[in-house]
Prior knowledge:
- The chain is of the alpha+beta class.
- The protein folds into two domains: 1-86, CATH 2.40.50.100; 100-143, Dihydrolipoamide Transferase (Irregular).
- It has helices at residues 82-88, 102-110, 129-142; strands at residues 2-6, 16-22, 29-30, 35-40, 45-49, 54-59, 66-67, 71-76, 89-93, 96-99.
- Strand 4 and strand 5 form a beta hairpin.
- Helix 2 packs parallel to helix 3 (129-142).
- The protein is globular.
- 24% of the residues are buried.
Amino acid sequence: MTFQIKMPRLGLFMKEGKVAEWYKSIGEYVESGETICLVTNGTHFCEIVSNFDGYVCTMVNMDEVTPVQSVIVELDDKPVQMDTAEEYYIEIAPHQFQLITPIAKKMAQKYKIDVSTLIGSGEGGEITKNDVRHVIDQIEAAT
């Protein structure tokens, strides 16, 4: 069973927020009552505590603008298969992940492109093959 934790409303007029810091990463086990992350609306900060036991299976990127009541992390009662999770996320810093399509990840690895420098054009900031292709074209044009 999957449990969703959503971006809370930290103020009356808050429409969106960001995860300022992750305390957990994909695949880690979270117990009910354990702090998962720190969120902010730019002026206020709030630690998000899980009401569920489970394994982190998806999470938004740190500093990604997320609307109030949108899912920021999902927990599953079954362990995450890391080979599957690694296909879609790249850890660009401790507890900071970038969503990337499998084909874009392979292309970036082949051309030794640092994906942490890319801004994804896909849904939710996902890096797509077109994003990587654009960088490859620039590299090839420069040589």
